[in-house]
Structure formats: C-alpha cells, structure tokens
Amino acid sequence: MNTFLAATTLLVAAFAAGASAQVPSLPVPATSPLPPVVPRKETLRLKFPVGQTLYYTLTEDTAGSYLEPHRRIIPIKSHLEMQEHQTVADLRETDSAGLVDMGVDSMTVTVDDKPSPLPSGALAAMTALTRLIVLKNGKLEATVVDPGFNAEEVLTGEDPAHLNVLSGLGELPAAPVQAGDKWKSVSFLGMTDEHSTADVLLAAWETKDAATIAVIKQAIHGQFGTPAAALSDPKADDLKIKGWLSGTRTVRLNVEAGTIDSADSLVYMTVLLTPKGDDGKYTAAPTRMWVKVTSKTTQTSAPAEVPPAPAEVPPAPPSMPP
Question: CB-based contacts of 203: which residues, under 8 Å, 6+ apart?
Fold first, then answer.
C-alpha cells in the first residue's frame, strides 16, 4: 500500500473518532400530532318571530309546447315577476309552528312576450289569500286559502302557495348536519294532488354579511294530477290532468336568522290533458304538454312606497307656424 495513502487514511479515521467523541449528538425534539379537523355541524331550523315581515322577489319563466289531438304543435312561453311578503302572524300553541300570511304586492305576466293583464280583482284577492302553517323543521303542514278565491282565474289552477319560498324548503333533518350529509324529504311545487319527493344534499356552508348560509340542493321527482275522488264526481271539471315532473332546486338558508335567503329551481314536466267525451267519461284523445319552468326567489328589503300618480295635465296646444 502507498505509504502516503495509508497515513492519510489513518489521520482521517482518527479525526473522525475524535470528533465523534468530542461533539455530542443533538436530541431530536418530540413532535405532537396536529389536532383533527372537526367538520362544522349545525341544526337547521326555521325561526318565526311574531310580527316579522320578509320581502321576496320572484321571477318565473315557462317554456315548452303542447301537441293537440290532431297533431298540431303549439309553443308555450310565459314570464312572471312578482313582489311578495310573508308575515309571521302568530305561533301555534301546541308546537310553535309558524302561522305565516303570504301577500302579493305586485305581479306582472307576459305571454309570448306580450303583456297579459290579470283578471279584474286578482291582485286584491291574492293580497290576503293564503296562510301557511309551517313547522320549524320546514315541513309545510297546511295551506289555508280564502274560500272566495278562484285560483283558475288567476294562476291557471296552481296552488298559490307555490309562489311562497317557504313551500319549497321541505323537511329538515332532526339531527345536526355537516356538508356532504344527505336525506330525503317530501317536495311541494304547488301542483294539484302532487306526490313528489326530493333527494337532499347539504352541499356547502357559505358566509354572507357575517351570517352562515346552508346551501341545500334537492333532486325532485314525482307525479301530480286530478284527484281520483274528483274524477268520480259527475260535476267534476271537464278536463282530467295527469303529469310527471323532475328537476332540481337550490335553497340558501340563513342559519342564525332561521330564514330563507334565496331559492332557485329548474323543473321539467310532462302533462296529459284529457277532456270528457260525450259519454261523460275521460275517453277523448288527450293533449300532450311538455314544459320547462325556471324560477328564482331572492329576499329583498321592503319595497319603496309608490308615489301617487300626478294629476293629468292637458297637452299644450300646437305651436303656430312662423
């Protein structure tokens, strides 16, 4: 072995041994595990302070077509805008359910992009036509409608309660929920003899003006139509209705206030309209209808008072030519 290489190797080994003997090894600090992330959970409930009035703006677009028995296709297009309010009139003594009065402040309707005037007195009738009985868990227990109100003359036979944002919330779960939780609920779109259900998902928590907003998404499916009891009545309407619906709805619930901040929905419907035949039975050829309904409801501030219309001023006489 090369003498220089051997000597160098010995020196390096001696230095390494001396260094290890003189420099103590540093202790490794103990590490503590991070605390687990606890998902946020909230109990979702409506709140009904007596006397509280909330204001909402609703827009609803309907588009589709119907096929007459002699195969003619007719398009359908309408647009509705409405300002409404809901007032907590009282609480039911047995369970503190909210007795909520719905009122309509203004409404405009267009059909095929042309203004469609409301029937005489329709808006006045709707102003105090509906009281909703709503449980704190969101379940719509009953709708009390003014018996003198003729829904067919105003809204083509739909239950007016569907225009109130509370009717579309559905039943909330009893236990606290976190984002990602799912449940099932009865759905209500205001159709005649409706039997609809919804698969519900708490999609996320959001924050708006320091308030916690629960984003609730629903997948809706069901049927509606003329009740069987009504069809057996000789005095029943001359039109039998049978329909199927499916769609989605998103509701944003203010957790602290216990109120609905907004709601939007997209619903598809297929409807069969069967008139009575000469024998008094529903055996005539049906009309088929396909409809898409898009709606959005947003909570707003109280509407501004409309100033009185100015007195009519006669037009100025035409100027004389020079």
Answer: 179, 215, 216, 217, 250
The two tokens of residue 83 are 């300002």
Give 98-133 pLDDT, tens digit per residue.
Answer: 999 888 888 889 998 898 877 666 666 565 567 888
Q: What is the CATH number of the domain that holds 194?
A: 2.30.230.10
Helix locations, 81-132, DSSP H: 122-127
Helix (H) or strand (E) holding 212: strand 211-225
- Tell me whether residue 24 is in a domain: no
**Contact between 177 and 202 (Cβ < 8 Å):** yes
Higher-confidence position of 154 and 43: 43
Beta pairing partners, 320: none
Number of domains in the chain: 1
37 in any annotated domain: no
Phi and psi at residue 292, to the nearest 5°: -120, 125
Domain span holding position 76: 53-300
Whether residue 43 contacts residue 202, with contact meaning beta carbons closer than 8 Å, is answered with no
**In what helix (H) or strand (E) does residue 18 lie, and over which residues does it extend?**
helix 3-22
**Rounded distance between C-alpha atoms, residue 322 and residue 319, angstroms:** 9
Instruction: Determine if the pTM surpasses 0.85.
Output: no
